Amino acid sequence: MSANSADRPRQVDVVLVKAGRTKIRYPAELLADDGTRVTVRAPWAGSGTRDFGFVRFEPGDVFTEHYWRDRWYSVKEVRTASGALKGWYCDITRPAALTGAELVVEDLDLDLWRSADGTDVRRLDEDEFAESGLTERDPQAASAALAALDELESRAHDGDFDALFS
């Protein structure tokens, strides 16, 4: 953590907001905050197992989550309880805000999955995004969201994905 983050709590609540309502809130350990990127670690916060068909999130899985104050996405590294890398789940969001012990991000419906070996890259929930009405309500935000998804997909295919974390 940076020197200016010494007064920040080591524990934060991650609050994912969608359509103006809290979708999920869970405690996480604050690992780093450099003023631009906030990194936290938390166990799988869902109830039970969530099977996407291409990956399963299960009790015991550990998520190391990276949130940016200046980017329209967050990236979550997903590992099994034994430490095996499953891959990265990327949420398209408005830039994150850390206030006190609360890290708030607004989910914009678009997602991207990148498998551990990089061979499976999937754009997700484009239908939900289209149905959300964001394009009509806030065209600039919709444009930023789509650009963020394109950037992540490009990085995932071009081998530039790991540069996100350096």
From TrEMBL:
Q: What is this protein called?
A: DUF402 domain-containing protein
Extract the coiled-coil ranges from the record: none
Question: By its UniProt entry, which Pfam families does this protein fall under?
Answer: DUF402 (PF04167)
Q: Which keywords label this protein?
A: Hydrolase
Question: What SUPFAM superfamilies does its record include?
Answer: FomD-like
All residue ranges annotated as the DUF402 domain in the record: 47-159
Q: Which parts of the chain span the membrane according to its record?
A: none
Is the Transmembrane keyword given for this protein? no
Entry's PANTHER family?
PTHR39159, UPF0374 PROTEIN YGAC
Q: Which Gene3D superfamilies match?
A: FomD-like
